[in-house]
Write a structure and sequence with these properties.
The protein is α/β, with parallel strands linked by helices and about 425 residues long. The chain has three domains: about 1-90, NAD(P)-binding Rossmann-like Domain (Rossmann fold), CATH 3.40.50; about 100-270, 3-Layer(aba) Sandwich (UDP-N-acetylmuramoyl-L-alanine:D-glutamate ligase), CATH 3.40.1190; about 280-424, Mur ligase, C-terminal domain (Protein-Tyrosine Phosphatase, Chain A). Helices cover about 35% and strands about 20% of the residues. It has helices at about 10-20, 40-45, 55-60, 75-85, 90-100, 115-125, 190-200, 240-255, 260-270, 295-310, 325-330, 330-340, 365-380, 390-395, 415-424, and strands at about 1-5, 25-30, 50, 65-70, 90, 105-110, 130-140, 145-150, 155-160, 175, 210, 225, 280-285, 285-290, 315-320, 345-350, 385, 405-410. The mean pLDDT is about 95.
Length: about 425
């Protein structure tokens, strides 16, 4: 049975393609020509993909039993052609739910930290030699890709809230890492955002366990385990910072409930983490990248850098991700920038041109957002703005004495490529 993926290079899509391949399906797909770091796992696992969208791709691969289409490409030429041929098409979350809902599903959700938390819990199950499928929205260094597969009895999933994707899933256990307002292009208010999570919690099936730092008004059938964060309890981990420790304490609660404490402690010492999560790309010069893209994540990443590298002068490069997020959270971003600039370690805060989503069209409103970023870079001390990678690289190459310096990139776009160019 052949499954065709439209937009196969997407973080979730590439991971799901690997899951279906591990389950024995023939998998093929297509995407744009632009390089995505996710495609390395596709090549490694010998999954064929076309680097364009065309009806001819579909014709070459017939017969196709099922197609899974990324949210970004619901109306493109291939999707329309698949529907014309009456080939059943599913969205990404529908494609996940088709497998997840038949397993003992464990969903990790929340505004921040779900990628690392999902991968870490997967590592625990790996060490416990459980039959498990783990699906993470980013490649994990421990597995060389976004998927770990040893069976389908358990399914550990990074459950994304965007466009209510996670409402397709019926988990047995949910771990909620955090609940800060995000995705303002879809959730118009904080209340709407929170309501979506509450709907998801009501999807829980027996044993219906919710682990979080909160207490919600939910049906009595749902067993809520509210964790109280212990600042004095510190676990070994590949990255420093309280935000990591908070997520570890949630996972530890899970391990207490399912008798996996030994594997938890073993995993803290062995887990390498996902790509682009406090990712040390080079020690000489010291280059570190992180996927953080909300004000809270940017602040947390900077604090982690300060904690681990107390004597380094930091060049901190942030690339905003989507105009809608930048516009709606602008005041929070400004507050974060000011906090970073108050640090004795900061040498320069560099704001790079916004990485726009495929769903955002160029318009006057977006140009105004970019102009505001340029203006604050002029008003704030030690702050620069770049819209050209070439000019940014010229600036970074002029830095003298890398020995006591640290260059960090932060954002969900492609800013990390700058570090590879410096490294090379």
């Amino acid at each position: 049975m052949k499954i065709y993926f439209v937009g196969i290079k997407g973080t979730g899509m590439s991971a799901l393609a690997l899951v279906y391949k591990n389950l024995g399906y023939e998998v093929v797909g297509s995407d744009v020509k632009e390089y995505f770091f996710t495609q390395e796992s596709l090549v490694k696992n010998k999954i064929k993909f076309y680097e364009n969208f065309s009806e001819e791709n579909i014709k070459k691969e017939l017969p196709i039993k099922l197609a899974i289409v990324s949210n970004a490409w619901q109306n493109n030429i291939e999707t329309q052609f698949l529907k014309k041929l009456k080939i059943k098409t599913l969205t990404y979350p529908e494609g996940v739910a088709k497998i997840f809902n038949k397993s003992f599903g464990i969903a990790v959700c929340g505004t921040h930290g779900k990628t690392t938390t999902t991968a870490f819990l997967g590592k625990i199950f790996e060490l416990a030699k459980k039959e498990v499928t783990v699906l993470v929205g980013s490649p994990v260094k421990d597995w060389g890709g976004p998927v770990y597969f040893s069976g389908k009895k358990f399914f550990i999933l990074e459950a994304d809230e965007y466009k209510n994707a996670f409402l397709n899933y019926k988990p047995k256990v949910i771990i909620l890492t955090s609940l800060d307002y995000d995705h303002p292009d879809f959730f118009k208010t904080k209340k709407e955002y929170k309501e979506s999570f509450l709907k998801f919690f009501r999807n829980l099936e027996k044993p219906s366990i919710l682990i979080s730092y909160y207490k919600f008004k939910l049906p009595k059938r749902i067993k809520q385990f509210k964790v109280k964060y212990n600042k004095n309890l510190k676990f070994d981990f590949f990255a420093p910072g309280d935000h990591w420790q908070k997520n570890l304490q949630l996972v530890y609660k899970f391990c207490e409930l399912f008798n996996l404490q030994n594997q938890f402690h073993l995993a803290t010492k062995n887990f390498k983490g996902p790509l682009r999560r406090f990712d040390i790309l080079s020690h000489d010069p010291l280059l570190i990248d992180d996927y953080g893209h909300t004000p809270e994540e940017v602040r947390a990443f900077y604090k982690s850098l300060e904690e681990k590298f107390k004597n380094k002068k930091i060049y901190f490069i942030f690339q905003p991700h989507t105009y809608t997020r930048t516009k709606f959270l602008f005041k929070k971003f400004l507050k974060t920038f000011k906090e970073i600039l108050s640090s004795k370690n900061i040498q320069k805060l560099i704001i790079f041109k916004t990485f726009s989503s495929a769903r955002e069209k160029s318009n006057e409103e977006n140009r105004k957002v970019e102009e505001k970023l340029k203006n604050i870079s002029k008003k704030l001390k030690k702050t620069l703005y770049f819209e050209s990678e070439e000019n940014l690289l010229k600036f970074l190459k002029k830095i003298k004495n890398y020995n006591n310096k640290l260059i960090a990139t932060c954002g969900a776009g492609n800013i990390y490529k700058v570090l590879f160019k410096i490294k090379n």
